[in-house]
Specification:
two-stranded antiparallel ribbon; eight-stranded parallel beta barrel; about 40% helix; binds zinc ion; alpha/beta
Amino acid sequence: MSDMMYRPRRHRRNVNIRDLVAETDVRVKNLIQPYFVCEGSGIKQEIASMPGIFRESLDSLSKTIDDDFRLGIRRLMLFGIPDKKDAAASSAVGCNAIGPKTVRQLKDKYGDDLFVSADVCLCAYTDSGHCGIIKNDRVDNDATLPVLADMAVSLAEAGCDCVGPSDMMDGRVAAIRERLEAAGFHETLIMAYTAKYASSYYGPFRDACDSAPGKGDRRGYQMDFRNRREALAELALDVEEGADIVMVKPALAYLDIISDFRRSVDLPVAAYNVSGEYAMVKLMAKENLADEKALVLENLTAIKRAGADIILTYHLRDILKGGWLD
Ligand SMILES: [Zn+2]
């Protein structure tokens, strides 16, 4: 058998050759760390299902972010957890809302050295726990849009670099873009949760944000995981409505959707490596079923290889602490 002209194993003979020909590289600069901020002071509670991830009051969070900045974190996504919830999600809007208040403090301190993006959705702020305003027992799409737009403008006024609408209402990117333009925030990025699927992988996140719906579920607005072409319809709408970055969420069970996005659009594509995906890795590592570093790098590389330019991941702090990436 000496007549084989092409032997793929030549590329795999040692680490120098493997690195030389590797097609995919995960880079720290493409990763975003999510944070959860709540009202109050002196609060730092580890989320039971997400070891190493906390919900913190602003005083504690700003210390955490100082430490993380020294570690090398330069990009974050912020989720606010208010004290009060009501039917109108009124604590989501205004300069004293938990999101804008936190953004302002971070941007005053760090300016452009820290990229601050923030979630735009109502589920942590409504007493129903749904992502929109309830009318006649249903999440009312068009009644939700102005509230989302107000929330986005409040964040932009606080200096937020990027708003991330995650609610899956129809027309919300356009509603937010129009309001941002009208208010003079021409440079605020919109990272749209374009294909956000109704997923069981969000369980730990709902612990973190205390945002599980009281009754019903989110399948009336988040996407059905049986659908692939529908994601491209959502993508076309978000591009037309003015999204700057388009996202697929969750990531690992949706690599085909990430790949479709990459082939269909020239905008940056993001993927959210969600709480349940993080929890699975942590549980496997804890039970000594696999090496944590190896699992994390395999998962993130797969997401990147599928076509994501940007990955939101709870693993970023561990990656930097462990020096897992160059
Ligand atoms: Zn929501």
